[in-house]
Amino acid sequence: MGRGLTPAFVRRLRARGWRSLVVSAALFGTTLISVAGAWAARQAWVEHQRSVDAALREYARYAARAYGEQMTAALGLLRAQAAAAASVPASSHPLTLAEFAAAAGAVLDRRASYAGDRWRGFYRMDLRDGRYEATGAAADDAVLRDSIPAIARRTTAHAEPAGLPPFAFLRHGGEVLIVVVAVQRDARDVPVAAFGYVGSRLRMYAAATAGVARRSPMLLPPSTITTSWLYGETTSEDTLVALQVLGDAGEEYYRTPRQYVSDASGEFVFRGMSTSTIRATLHPALAARIRASYLHDDRRALQLLLPLLALGLAAAGVVHLRRERELQQARRDFVASVSHELRTPLAQIRMFSETLLLRRERDEEERARWLGVIGREARRLGDLVENILLFSHAESARLRLEPERTDLGELVEEVVEAYVPIAASRHMRIVADAPSRIYALVDPRALRQVAVNLLDNALKYGPARQTVTVEVERVARDDAQRDEAQWARIAVTDEGPGVPAAERERVWRPFVRLGDEGGTSGGSGIGLAVVRSLVDQHGGRVSIEDGPAGRGARVVVLLPLAAQAPPLGAPPNGSRVTASGAPA
User: Fold this and answer.
1) Cα(181)–Cα(152) distance, rounded to whole angstroms?
2) Contact at 8 Å (CB) between 296 and 308?
3) Which of 92, 106, 305, 403 is 20 to 30 A (C-alpha) from 22?
4) pLDDT in tens, 299-343
5) Among candidate residues 309, 253, 304, 302, the one with its CA nearest the CA of residue 277
6) Is the Cβ–Cβ distance between 70 and 212 less than 8 Å?
7) For a pLDDT cut of 90, what percent of the chain falls above it?
8) Per-residue confidence at 581, pLDDT binned at 50, 70, 90?
9) Are 489 and 557 in contact (CB under 8 A)?
10) How many angstroms separate the Cα of 358 from the Cα of each of 348, 363, 371?
11) Could you give the 3-state DSSP secondary structure of residue 318?
């Protein structure tokens, strides 16, 4: 029996949020389905490619078989034409050997290059008395003189009157010879004489198959050939299919002049009295075009895009959930920090107000000091509330500024004077160089909050006994655009640990507090975010630099001067305020 969900597990689920867990599980399932879909699509594509490759090889085998059939028909036609003179009945015209040799030789010389064959020979054998006469190799070679009569008798016994002239192969002299037999018959269709010729099978097949390749009408299915099938070659189809004809012993009878290296090849074997193997290889450009026509599928892109899109959406969902959890954690930290920030001044106000109500002060001086503490903490509490309100309005794009011509020196001096007691309580000094009559068109309330946040950060993250410097001055910002306009520059410098260069962009984000990582006191995490938002809305710039001699940090705010401001040479009035509040 299971113990079910433990309270600790339930608390963890609630802490993480049921919604996040459900969404995470859904995204994980979507990712698995997407991966499975992508894998299935890939496997289907691979199988499709294999099918296309098999179809190309089948096309090549089709071409080989078609060529073989045409070659067989051409060789049969050659035998029939060469032996046509023997088809005349003997009763009407007794055919002599010389007449047969002249007629058959003319055909063979023209169609099979027979004149250069060293085994060239013609013969006649009387089937009634067995008398044998021959010319050429059929007469000069003793083996042929002995073998041809036996072949003639054997083939004549099975020859059909209307069929093609039979033939036989004879191995002699390291070659395979072909012996063709043509039967002459009398008026009663009785065989009376056998005429024929002998020659090299290799030479005769090579010449005959070459002619077939040149005259070949169609070796490929018509659907595979278009009007653009020439590929820069001549118009004969042997430019599309490279052919090779091999004998039963592997000897090469014929090959087309142009051969290709391609995986789109196949062969077909013809079996009979002799075995011939025909190999066909498709032109690489033709194979590529056929492959492209079969593999081009608009759905292929969709099949690949959908899993990738699902994976992208799942990744975006994971990033969003992670960001949401980070924001939730940041908000919890923010609430805890603000609660702590509010508790401290409230505790001070409550303690001193109750003490005053109980009239426990010893004298008027002590009473005035306690009232000062209450006022200071109330201002601090007001600044914190104002900071939160400004941040909330900026985040929701509801912040509306009310700019007016403002003396920046006086405004900064007012803020510094308010923070002098706070600095003194922490054993710190504030030195301000804030001359008056430096005017800018700003919202005083918003800019006061900028100065408050910068001073608060400098005091909060700096060491005891540090000196915080506040400067206000006119400058000419000489940037890449050679902008010579007048700007107001507010700089707050502390002597704390500084801000690493790699973190100077991140600190402007909401809820980011480097003090947590550095071990210093924390804050609400929105102070610098409010500063950047307010400065940007005023058309200014804010940046962080190293302090003097690389010690501490300096935050610099640049604001455009008001058009009505006095010129830069006008004598400013101002004062230097220290931690004691006395002019220096």
Assistant:
1) 6
2) no
3) 305
4) 666 666 777 777 777 777 778 777 777 777 767 766 766 676 677
5) 253
6) yes
7) 14
8) very low
9) yes
10) 15, 13, 14
11) helix
Question: Has residue 228 got a pLDDT over 60?
Answer: no
Task: State yes or no: pLDDT of 391 exceeds 50.
Answer: yes
DSSP state letters, 486-526: EEEEEEEE--SS---GGGTTGGGSTT--HHHHHTS----S-
Contact 41, 307 (CB under 8 A): yes
Name residues whose C-beta falls within 8 Å of residue 583's C-beta, 6 or more positions apart in sequence. Answer: 575, 576, 577
Helix (H, G, I), strand (E, B) or coil at 95: coil
Domain extents for the chain?
A: 16-56+295-327, 60-288, 401-577
Query: Looking up tokens 């802490």, which residue turns up?
Result: 15
What is the pTM for the complete model shown?
0.49
AA identity, residue 186: D
Instruction: Check residues 384 and 579 and name the one with the higher pLDDT.
Output: 384
State the alpha helices, DSSP H only, in 232-297.
284-295
pLDDT in tens, 183-213: 888 878 888 889 999 998 888 877 777 766 6
Task: Give the span between the Cα atoms of 217 and 70, in whole angstroms.
Answer: 9
Q: How far apart are CA 526 and CA 433, in angstroms?
A: 27
**Tokens 């005017």, located at residue:** 439
User: What letter represents residue 87's amino acid?
Assistant: S
How many angstroms separate the Cα of 333 from the Cα of each of 14, 21, 313, 337, 387? 18, 22, 30, 6, 16
Cα three-residue angle 207-210-212, rounded to 5 degrees: 115
Q: How far apart are CA 244 and CA 261, in angstroms?
A: 13
**Measured between alpha carbons, how far is 190 from 335 in angstroms, rounded to an integer?**
122
- Residue of 237, 537, 211, 225 whose CA lies nearest to 400: 537
Residue 493 to residue 373: CA distance in whole angstroms? 26
**Angle (CA) 441 380 382, round 5°:** 65
pLDDT-derived band of residue 226, with 50, 70 and 90 as boundaries?
low
**SS3 assignment, position 416:** helix
> What class has domain 401-577?
alpha beta
Q: What are the CA-CA distances from residue 470 to residues 227, 423, 455, 557 (Å)? A: 84, 13, 8, 11
Q: Are 83 and 193 in contact (CB under 8 A)?
A: no
Structural tokens at position 348: 């001070």
Hey, what are 177's tokens?
Answer: 């010879």
Structure tokens, 353: 């107000």
What's the one-letter identity of residue 557? V
Q: Extract the tokens encoding 215.
A: 């005259």
**Distance, CA of 366 to chain centre:** 76
Instruction: Retrieve residue 33's tokens.
Output: 């389905």
The per-residue pLDDT of the chain, averaged, comes to 78
Q: Which two tokens stand for residue 324?
A: 């949401």
Q: What is the pLDDT of residue 213?
A: 65
Separation of alpha carbons 31 and 25, rounded Å: 10
Provide the 10 A C-beta neighbour count for residue 494.
26
Residue of 528, 556, 529 lying closest to 541 (CA atoms)? 556
What pLDDT does residue 29 have?
Answer: 77
